[in-house]
Amino acid sequence: MSEKASILVQLDTDALPSAFDRVVAIDSGVQHLFSYGGITPDNVVPIVHGCIFTRGPKDLNRTAIFIGGSDVAAGEAVFAEVKKALIPQFGMSVSLMLDSNGSNTTAAAAVRAAGRHLDLSQARSLVLGGTGPVGQRVARLLAKHGGHVRIGSRLRERAETVCQAIRAHVPNGKLEAVAVGTSADGPKALEGRNLVVAAGAAGTLLLPKKIRDTARDLRLAIDLNAVPPVGIEGIEVTDRGKERDGVICYGAIGVGDTKMKAHKAAISQLFQSNHSLLDIEEIFDITLRLP
Question: Where do the structural domains in the chain lie, given as residue ranges?
Fold first, then answer.
């Protein structure tokens, strides 16, 4: 019998499944794409059971599930419920990937870029927009590699909440919450930092050039915002390892090429087994294998 066709089941927490994620799935070689919107933990189990009970265990590596949507917390809740609905002890399982709002692939690509220029175990970083979905994952990866990570937010209490959440995954993480709500906060938050990553909301300037110029230890700046104004003033969205005023700079498009390659490679990996669970750490490992 010929090999079963590959089927990717897209579970999107938004009402309309993401066209972006659908296009990438097709470009990654998926033969059949089933897209469902409005997914919640309460309605996902019948879809999961439809995936695992229709093919025998030896063919379930040809079925996989992608979880997306604009709300990362909602995606995480669905991801957890999908894992609970699988029955791996009897071989009734399929591979899963979580990438709500592109948070995992974008964060993995950003940290991969940082690792080209800095020893991540020694990096002293500041993550602006660190309480957002991408910022949290950037901070989590940096902390896991052993560097000291400051998480910046307009409200220090929100940053501290994120620090505690990351410690659940990285118990020995060197994390510090800082407020960056005023112009007076910026220079202090940048003290001793050799890496800054801006991962805030689209069109939000997080680091003006006059404040960035006060950071004497800064060696690398990564801005993940492609919508004007950019998150770090003075960086171009197309910068990819370009030196500006003695600082190596990456813009959103400069990181985006790796992000897209990681997304496609992760989709392909889903069909190599029926038990891969691709969250941030696993997707970062995929970026390290990219050319």
Answer: 7-98, 105-255
Q: Which residue from 202, 209, 214 is spatially nearest to 235, judged by alpha carbons?
A: 209
In sequence order, what E strands does 172-227 have? 174-179, 195-198, 220-223
CA pair distance 272, 150, nearest whole angstrom: 37
- What's the chain's average pLDDT? 95
The pLDDT assigned to 157 comes to: 95
| Parallel/antiparallel/unpaired status of strands 247-250 and 277-278 | unpaired
- d(CA 233, CA 235) in angstroms, rounded, equals 6
* Burial of residue 30, with CB atoms counted within 10 A of its CB: 0-12 exposed, 13-18 middle, 19 or more buried: buried
Q: Is the peptide bond before 187 cis (omega within 30 degrees of 0)?
A: no
CATH number attached to the domain at 7-98: 3.40.50.10280
pTM for the structure as a whole: 0.95
**Mean pLDDT across 237-253:** 97
Burial-class residue 191 by CB neighbours within 10 Å (0-12, 13-18, 19+): middle
Predicted local confidence at residue 2, as pLDDT = 65
Q: Please give the structure tokens belonging to residue 45.
A: 């189990």
Joined tokens for residue 120? 């991540």
* Fold matches, 7-98 and 105-255: yes
Taking every pair of C-alpha atoms in the chain, what is the biggest distance, in angstroms? Answer: 68
Q: Are strands 124-128 and 32-36 parallel, antiparallel or unpaired?
A: unpaired
Percentages helix, strand, coil for the chain (3-state, rounded to 5) are: 40, 20, 40
**Higher-scoring residue by pLDDT: 227, 106:** 106
Cα 251 to Cα 4, 136, 175, 273, distances in angstroms: 41, 19, 25, 35
The domain over range 105-255 is classified in CATH as 3.10.250.10: no
Say how far apart CA 231 and CA 180 lie, in whole Å.
13
